[in-house]
Write a structure and sequence with these properties.
233 residues, mainly alpha, 7 helices, 71% helix, globular
Length: 233
């Protein structure tokens, strides 16, 4: 197998497909006024995300020597995946809010700087990008096909929820000596965390950066609403 190389042709191709596929599917689904296409594609997203998650857990469980409490789906990307699944099934606004801000705000960073050892066509490469690209693609698809969008309250919800996650994950880490949310140590591979300082200071830096990213992600919608208000005035 070929070692993974950042910005290799395969890496760039996956990044392009991550945005191109949901844009195309969203456009295709919107052309069906009855909404049947949109629902079918949403089910496909659910199946792809869940099958990828199960296969990844099985693969890790078979190959790793780590304890079972260290390989549970409790990282933020996993919760963003669950939020995507629920939003596809129920179109619940809260689930979409978490998928939008946690998925676009956090998972995209994983796509840009993935912590992979092996490149395409390894199983590790395929499952990693199916999960991470699937989350981002799902959020884009929900936004286009179902016209879902965040509100200002969504920023508050996502921010409070991520603080709640940090508290629960932190307690779990202390109880079981794990590192979910990378609250106890940085990832072993090079990531954005390397620019945020040493532990525990990077936690404060990450919190501030998180609020900035969430605000930036909402900014296009705020501008759109402001323009709409001016036109109707």
């Amino acid at each position: 197998m070929v070692p993974f190389k950042l910005w290799s042709p395969e890496h760039i191709a996956v990044l392009v497909l991550t945005f191109l596929v949901p844009l195309t599917l969203g456009w295709w689904a919107r052309r069906d006024r009855q909404g049947r296409r949109a629902r079918i594609v949403a089910v496909v997203f659910v199946l792809v995300l869940l099958v990828q998650l199960v296969l990844n857990l099985v693969l890790v469980g078979l190959e790793t020597t780590e304890r079972w409490v260290e390989i549970m789906p409790l990282h933020l990307c996993h919760l963003a995946l669950f939020a995507c699944v629920d939003a596809c099934i129920t179109r619940r606004q809260f689930s979409y809010d978490l998928a939008y801000f946690w998925g676009l705000g956090g998972t995209v960073q994983g796509l840009i700087t993935p912590g992979l050892a092996m490149g395409f066509p390894s199983v590790e490469f395929v499952l990693f990008f199916l999960g991470h690209s699937g989350i981002v693609a799902c959020v884009i698809y929900l936004t286009i096909a179902f016209r879902m969008r965040p509100r200002w309250l969504s920023v508050v919800r996502a921010s409070v929820a991520i603080l709640g996650y940090a508290l629960v994950a932190g307690a779990f880490n202390v109880a079981f000596d794990t590192n979910y949310g990378f609250l106890c140590a940085k990832p072993e591979t090079s990531t954005l965390f390397d620019l945020l300082g040493d532990w525990p200071w990077y936690l404060a830096s990450a919190t501030g950066l998180c609020l900035i990213v969430f605000t930036v992600l909402y900014l296009p919608w705020a501008i759109k609403d402001r323009r709409s208000t001016r036109r109707s005035a």
